[in-house]
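Problem 12. The chain below contains 253 residues. Write out its predicted structure in token notation.
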Amino acid sequence: MARAATTSDAFNAVAEPCRRKILHYLAGRERPVGDIVARLRIEQPSVSKHLRVLRDVGLVHVRRDGRQKLYRTSAEAIRPVHEWAAQFERFWEDQLDRIKKQAEEKDMAPTQEVELALNITKEIHVKASPEKTFAAILDQMGPRNRRGEGDPMPMKIEPWPGGRWYRDLGDNNGHLWGHVQAIKKNSLLEICGPLFASGPSVSNVQYRLFEEAGGTRIEFRHAGIGYFTPEQRQGVHMGWSSLLDRIKAGAEQ
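Solution.
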């Protein structure tokens, strides 16, 4: 669903996956709403709301042709987004070159490899319903979040597709940890993003909830790729264990 309240500029507007698909589809030529609905298989009311958001920030132009409206992507308006994203393409190329150079300098042996994958899986059993357990996940990942050592580190999580998980430090300062990739109330929460890392890495975090006798089973997975320092690898295991313990305690209260 389009959320106009969070889409006051082009960068926020393109953060929503459906709107990116619409922009890509409209880049070729003008199209009516019906073509967008049929091609992207998105319901017409949702398409109309997404188009309204994109028009409000200037990323889509519209003109009337008889009884129908034709929409197309505004190449000029999307240029700042493209130029901004291009900076990160150069950043990734530079970072990967550094990793390659560092690995080759440390050891020229053909068996030397740089470990770029991170995979953490955990399973816990909670004596509470899926509803209470899911609410505890959002609560502990949000306002009640803490660092691994226990110090408060409140976060904000927007529980809808494309919603942000981030630290709000006030005065437009903060740190984006990820976006909600998928959410199914009381059964699934999936987040993708850089999480805690400021280097060249990306992660996918999943909570899957299953109702069982006497409560709920949480299957947790954190899969990441990129450069993680040994300290980060050790810390992330401890951090997730601490968070899952707090989720369990919060749901069982």
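Discussion. The beta strands are 60-65, 68-73, 117-126, 156-157, 164-170, 173-184, 188-193, 201-212, 215-226. Students who got a different answer should revisit the alignment rule from Section 12.3.
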